[in-house]
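We read letters as residues; the integers encode the fold. Take this protein.
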Amino acid sequence: MKRLLGVTIISLLAAGLLIVSPASAGNDACAGQGEAVTQSNVYYPGLGPSATGTVTFTFTIGGCNQGHSNTANGNFTAGVAGAGNFCGSSTGDVSIDHHNGSWTSAGSMLVLSGGINGAVNAVPNATKGDSCTSGANDFLVTGSVALV
């Protein structure tokens, strides 16, 4: 319960920062909470195959300013040092409109760079039965990014 409350408070604060930020070409941003769906299941290393295919993320709380889409589309790449993509260690390419970036994950944190800069926290959606032990393809994501 405390974790859910903490995530909710962080999400609301991030969404509030997005709403009060002044609109200009220099501060295109997205912040809030949403859901990411992967094409293949993601497991802890050794419990299943490396994840491949597409990843689609949509904001459900907050969103993007400057008229940008609230959906990010991506693909898993080769994984950290070519080791594959697993819960706690993955890489990929991502885009929001014409802004293109990449991510590298460590634990539940994904650090984004390139044309999309920031950090998000992604955890399996336990309310839908997703787990890195049995395979997850639905993740709850909270964070913020700048579009450059």
